[in-house]
Prior knowledge:
This protein has helices spanning 21-32, 44-54, 60-63, 73-87, 110-137, 159-179, 200-203, 209-216, 229-236, and strands at residues 13-17, 36-41, 65-67, 92-95, 141-146, 184-191, 247-250. The protein is an alpha/beta fold and 262 residues long.
Amino acid sequence: MSYKKLFSLDGKVALCVGVGGLGGEIARGLHEFGAEVVVADRDKMRAEGVARTLFPNDSRAPESALEIDITSEESVTEAISRVSKRFSRIDVVINTVGFNIFKDAFDLSLAEFEQLIRTNLTGAWSLSKVAAQAMVERGGGKIVHLSSVTAYRGSPGQSAYAAAKAGLINMVKTLAIEWVQHGVYVNAISPILTDTSINREWLHAEAGRAEQFAAKIPLGRLGDPGDLVGPAVFLASPASDFLVGQTLSVDGGATVRHPLLG
Ligand SMILES: NC(=O)c1ccc[n+]([C@@H]2O[C@H](COP(=O)([O-])OP(=O)(O)OC[C@H]3O[C@@H](n4cnc5c(N)ncnc54)[C@H](O)[C@@H]3O)[C@@H](O)[C@H]2O)c1
């Protein structure tokens, strides 16, 4: 048996949901590895922009960009059914939707807390469920969620976001165990701080903040969207066929450094 096609996504249909800084780059990576990619975002223009970069001068671009609100099960169902109808299959779903409000708990309202959980956790559950149901009909597929290194420890201003991202890691384990018998693989990636729209305002609110964070990461820099492409392609491809319910920390060594001795 040859291993040359282990990372190939040829013939696979991939839906990338949430195509901001990290998701847009991951979509490009899946496309370059051979997948037929459809992108979806609450911001339709953002999805259309990514689709145009994937399919320049190609009539596929408009139909490869969908509007989706992951907090609405109706919207999630509509997106999955459009992809399934167009291609008669859906093999890969990458969820890179994310939303944060940087506020200490005393300043965070209940409505904001619930919105954070709904976007980062509940939406991920709905998307997983609807996607997995479509995948089961075709013998299986791969689902990848983006958690965060914020999930592992406490940090100020993150009570809802960190709770959602920690919940996501256990949800991934549980769904993976429930669905692996149907050929549906569920795994996750935890990125570290990367300069994208989710945190740009906060990251640059104080001079030197980005540099301070970079200095704490063993590799000496913040994440780059391109750092996520290899792990996402891996988890979407046959190369990861024995990985079930895992979360890969893609963090330049930050979470393995000893917090007191390192
Ligand atoms: N950038 C980082 O430092 C970092 C670190 C750790 C984890 N993450 C996680 O990685 C993922 C990608 O983040 P990013 O850096 O690309 O952020 P981003 O803000 O650039 O992209 C997030 C995308 O999600 C979309 N979105 C928000 N709410 C939505 C909804 N209800 N329905 C559909 N789409 C919605 C936004 O329109 C945006 O395009 C997120 O899950 C984020 O929590 C990011």
